[in-house]
Specification:
Blueprint lengths: L7 H13 L4 H12 E12 L1 H8 L1 H21 L2 E7 L2 E6 L2 H19 L9 E14 L3 E3 L1 H13 L5 E4 H5 L8 E8 L2 E8 L6
Parallel strand pairs: 4-6
Antiparallel strand pairs: 1-3, 1-4, 2-3, 4-5, 6-8, 7-8
Helix pairs in contact: 1-2, 3-4, 4-5
């Protein structure tokens, strides 16, 4: 998936103008909307138990697990018409045009990790918590996305989803064509905000 948006330097120039010339703010906002805003699905994956594994097995073992995780995740994201935005520590961030593509990638990732774990000792296992959002976001260059759905996907994937769970925002759910997915509605309150989300029972999907 190729993105055609502005660069970070171009966004910074517009933000500087927004700050220094208040009368031009409406014009700046329109320029940012035109140049950077896209409707995208965001997938945020947080590896479970890596801190404990690092303390027990050491940093080299931790880095080796990260290498295997990215080698597992990247082709599954790309096969679902997505692309990896970036990896940070034991987190992976990916972007898709369609919510359904992000959900498909999330299910395939969980299936792949489960299959691999069945053949591995416990200190080699990798589990992932995944959050998905969908909506208008600012896509900046090749590795940055900003917006409410990005923030919610991060909270779901990094803070709220449990091991081997897939959670999605209500916007991501509403953007799906399939209405009969096995979903559980949840209500969360974190960092001063309350919002509904949905847990996908991915083990029950075809």
């Amino acid at each position: 998936m190729q993105e055609s948006t502005g660069t970070r330097a171009e966004l910074d120039a517009l933000l500087r103008r927004y700050n220094e010339f208040p009368p031009s703010r409406a014009e700046v906002l329109a320029a940012i909307e035109r140049q950077f805003t896209r409707h995208r699905a965001i997938l945020v994956l947080d590896s479970s138990g890596f801190s404990r594994t690092t303390r027990a097995m050491g940093i080299v073992h931790f880095l080796a697990l990260l290498e295997r995780l990215e080698r597992t995740v990247r082709p599954l994201v790309e096969a679902s018409d997505g692309r990896i935005l970036k990896t940070e520590a034991d987190n992976v961030y990916a972007v898709f045009v369609e919510s359904a593509h992000a959900v498909r990638a999330a299910v395939r990732i969980q299936e792949a990790l489960r299959a691999a774990n069945e053949m591995l000792p416990s200190d080699e296992e990798i589990d992932a918590a995944i959050g998905i959002g969908f909506g208008p976001v600012l896509v900046v260059g090749t590795d940055d996305v900003f917006g409410d759905e990005m923030n919610l996907a991060c909270k779901l994937g990094e803070d709220l989803a449990q091991r081997a769970e897939i959670l999605m925002t209500s916007s991501a759910r509403e953007a799906l064509d399939e209405v009969d997915l096995p979903l559980d509605r949840l209500d969360f309150s974190i960092s001063g905000i309350s919002f509904p989300a949905f847990r996908l029972r991915w083990q029950e999907t075809p």
